[in-house]
Amino acid sequence: MDWTLKELDGEEHRSTPFTTLYHSLKKTFNFYPELQFNSLKEFSNAGGLPYVYEYHQKRANQYGFTPQLSDWSMFSLTRNAMRADDYQQFDAFINEFSSTNYISRLSLGRASSIAEFYVKNKQFDKAIVLFTMLIEKHPDSERPLNSLGDVYKEMKKERKASIYYKKAEKLAKNKAN
């Protein structure tokens, strides 16, 4: 039996069943939710990647889920690095998760935000690879075409930028018709 003694401030005999039920369910299903951090500091304070992998292993053991991190878990960690404007941590996450190819399964917006962070940090070759993949995966979207044009513009390759801007414009016109 796994039990915890907890003093319930502000409760009386008649109200404790609801409170104790809540706390017991919360404890029983502790590893059920997908792990998510609101900041890199919160991630670090929890124990970093070792904690994340341990959490997912416990989650898998308790509920039969896969112990592998979900695409959402990997993206949310990467997004925390982007929000903190921490390229070193961002790159560490990208390298850690690269074998999973999770970026290719992300939505256009999420994958684009990763490519745009590469651009922000002058990692143009990596951005080009990612935007090119997004163009192939989302041939009806102007966003990766425009973004690739922006990359080439940043690189002072105006001719190449113009090619992608024109493709995006043509696609937008075709959609309008």
Structural description of this entry:
- The chain is mainly alpha-helical.
- Helix content is 67%, strand content 0%.
- It has 9 helices and no strands.
List the helices and strands and how they pair.
Blueprint: H1 16-28, H2 40-46, H3 48-63, H4 71-83, H5 87-97, H6 108-120, H7 124-137, H8 142-154, H9 158-176
Described by the principal axes of the CA atoms, the overall outline is: elongated
SSE order, as H and E?
A: HHHHHHHHH
Query: Tell me about the biggest sheet?
Result: none
Give the DSSP E fraction (strand runs of 2 or more residues): under 5%
Low-confidence stretches: none
Q: Rounded to an integer, what's the Rg over CA atoms?
A: 23 Å
Strand elements, count: 0
* Helix content percent band: 55-70%
Mean pLDDT equals 92
**Alpha-carbon distance between the termini?**
67 Å
Structural class: mainly alpha
Number of helices: 9
Brief descriptors of the model:
177 residues, mainly alpha
Short description:
The protein is mainly α and 177 residues long. The protein has helices at 16-28, 40-46, 48-63, 71-83, 87-97, 108-120, 124-137, 142-154, 158-176.
